Amino acid sequence: SVREILAELTGRKGGCAKGKGGSMHMYAKNFYGGNGIVGAQVPLGAGIALACKYNGKDEVCLTLYGDGAANQGQIFEAYNMAALWKLPCIFICENNRYGMGTSVERAAASTDYYKRGDFIPGLRVDGMDILCVREATRFAAAYCRSGKGPILMELQTYRYHGHSMSDPGVSYRTREEIQEVRSKSDPIMLLKDRMVNSNLASVEELKEIDVEVRKEIEDAAQFATADPEPPLEELGYHIYSSDPPFEVRGANQWIKFKSVS
Amino acid sequence: MAVVAAAAGWLLRLRAAGAEGHWRRLPGAGLARGFLHPAATVEDAAQRRQVAHFTFQPDPEPREYGQTQKMNLFQSVTSALDNSLAKDPTAVIFGEDVAFGGVFRCTVGLRDKYGKDRVFNTPLCEQGIVGFGIGIAVTGATAIAEIQFADYIFPAFDQIVNEAAKYRYRSGDLFNCGSLTIRSPWGCVGHGALYHSQSPEAFFAHCPGIKVVIPRSPFQAKGLLLSCIEDKNPCIFFEPKILYRAAAEEVPIEPYNIPLSQAEVIQEGSDVTLVAWGTQVHVIREVASMAKEKLGVSCEVIDLRTIIPWDVDTICKSVIKTGRLLISHEAPLTGGFASEISSTVQKLCRIEDYPFYKRGKQTKKSKLLGQAQWLTPVIPALWEAEEECFLNLEAPISRVCGYDTPFPHIFEPFYIPDKWKCYDALRKMINY
Question: What ipTM does the predicted assembly reach?
Answer without folding.
Answer: 0.80
